[in-house]
Amino acid sequence: TVMAIVFPTIILPFCMLIMLLVQMIGGEINEEKTTKSMEVIISNVPAKVHFFSKVLSNNLFIITQAVLLFVYGALGFLIRNIIGTGINSDISNEISNTLSSLANSGILDKLYYLIPVTIILMILSFVAYSLIAGILASMTVNTEDYQHIQTPIMIICFIGYYLSIMASMFNGSIFIRILSYVPLISCLLSPALLVIGQITIFDVIISVSLLLLLIFVL
Questions:
Q1: CB-based contacts of 92: which residues, under 8 Å, 6+ apart?
Q2: 9-13, 92-96, 124-128, 205-209, range with the lowest pLDDT
Q3: Which of 80, 96, 126, 209 could potentially form a cystine with 84 if both were Cys, beta carbons 3.0 to 4.6 Å apart?
Q4: Res 145: pLDDT
């Protein structure tokens, strides 16, 4: 029940937003190179300022998209409750049963720290992925080259996604706990493991620390 809720509502959209972020930053940098606008930009502002402004603006855009995604979903569900008939009652009953199951499992009591650490991991991961995408894009000369060089980023993202799906199969495994510390994967894996109780908040703090270290190095 928990995984059926977590994946469609949090992990899958988060994975899609990472891919969108990587595509956006790489596309913008290569467009600036091919149109020669990079020379005009760098002649007016320092390269570091330009790079960080690009990372910041794209991350703000992605975070805004994530917020709007949940707002629109909640709004759609609210409208359905107001004007919907028939199947609407079945949906409401299923949601009530799901909330009851979550309450009985004790997960709702953990939301006060589950939600903040998940948001922190997501925001830091957006920054890390955007930095890597920007670095790789700076090494290419056109969009076609970037399409090839961004493949490792996508593979890492998908590894984290599929490990999150299979997280419940690794119950008590040291292997999956170690992987939850790995930056770029931890953003998808750690929240799932924390929800199903395979790691603790201390493990998530380690994941956040290593992710911060990666960002600093980048």
A1: 81
A2: 92-96
A3: 80
A4: 80
Is pTM beyond 0.90 here?
Answer: no
Condensed to tens digits (0 to 9), the pLDDT of residues 77-116 reads 788 777 765 555 566 666 666 667 666 666 666 667 778 8
- Region 69-77: mean pLDDT is 85
Token digits of residue 4: 């059926």
- For residue 67, what are its two tokens? 């917020």
DSSP per residue, 79-125:
HHHHH--THHHHHHHHHHHHHHHHHHHT-GGGHHHHHHHHHHHHHHH
Q: Which residue from 140, 161, 134 is spatially nearest to 24, judged by alpha carbons?
A: 134
Listed as own residue / partner, the contacts of 194-197 with beta carbons closer than 8 Å and 24 or more positions apart are 194/114, 194/117, 194/118, 195/2, 195/3, 195/6, 195/107, 195/114, 196/2, 196/3, 196/167, 196/168
Block residue for tokens 């020669």: 36
- Taking the C-alpha atoms of residue 122 and residue 18, their distance in angstroms, rounded to an integer, is 9
Distance CA 46, CA 56 (A): 15
At 26 the three-state DSSP class reads: helix
